[in-house]
Design brief:
The protein is an all-beta fold. It has 1 helix and 18 strands. It has 2 domains: 84 residues, no CATH class; 130 residues. The relative contact order is 0.12.
Length: 248
């Protein structure tokens, strides 16, 4: 298909390669038994300043992930696997400055999905991967508005273990996404405030194909309770919220 030119997708999330290459930009993902590898080459980025990266995200077999199969009507679906808090190493180079990443201080997230979508879709996705002051790793994965919500993928991932949550409500100013957001789970186990500091907006309109995405970066603070009743506090955990409306 013309719009799929330069794209190759792996058949599953555990093995194989996925890449995009249009001659100007190349982004490649390789999945292995215990790691995910990412390579980026984009010479024209930032008005020709360029960006490149070579990253390895380590994923042990014991590390739990959030997997859902979401119905979209009677004939469509979306399968997704999200893996938070993966110790990451490698390098990122921008404007001639090379930054080294070490797994003791850096975490990554994998978002892998396949499916047959409806023509018009919209969603909110909130995520984070960070270290707590205790040294534990904490991941957030919350969403709303996408397909059949009977099996939501809301969860907190603490030290590689998933703690499932009920539906999460998002309270925010629709006309000013840079105002603080609030997320509360219906079971009362999660109460968070998200304070933005940066918004990225990308729009495209090709008549039949249209997309508008707002990616808001900020800090999460609040509390959640594990399935065993342990209360965990979050303070200024860096993460993002994505609001997307699409017609494709």
């Amino acid at each position: 298909m013309p719009l799929g030119r330069g794209i190759h997708l792996a058949r599953n999330s555990d093995a194989g390669e996925s890449w995009f290459d249009n001659g100007r930009v190349r982004v490649a993902f390789e999945s292995g038994a215990n790691a995910r590898r990412v390579q980026v080459r984009w010479p024209g980025f930032d008005s020709g300043q360029g960006i490149a990266a070579g990253l390895t995200l380590h994923c042990s077999p014991q590390h739990e992930s959030v997997v859902t199969m979401t119905p979209m009507g009677t004939r469509r679906f979306f399968y997704t696997r999200k893996i938070n808090c993966l110790p990451s190493e490698g390098w990122v180079e921008h404007r001639g400055v090379r930054t080294e990443l070490q797994p003791a201080h850096c975490l990554g997230t994998v978002d892998w999905g396949r499916g047959v979508w409806a023509y018009q879709t919209s969603w909110i996705w909130a995520s984070a991967s960070a270290f707590l002051e205790s040294g534990q790793t904490v991941g957030l994965n919350m969403g709303a508005g996408f397909g059949d919500a009977s099996a939501p993928d809301n969860a907190v991932i603490l030290d590689g273990r998933v703690h499932k949550l009920d539906d999460v409500g998002f309270a925010y100013e629709r006309d000013d996404l840079m105002r603080p957001w609030r997320m509360t789970s219906r079971d009362g186990r999660l109460r968070l405030e998200f304070v933005p500091f940066k918004e990225r907006v990308a729009r495209s309109n090709l008549l039949l194909v249209k997309s508008e995405v707002h990616q808001i970066f900020g800090h999460y603070s609040g509390t959640f309770t594990t399935g065993e009743g342990q209360a965990v506090s979050l303070r200024n955990v860096a993460g993002f919220v994505e609001q997307h409306r699409a017609r494709w």
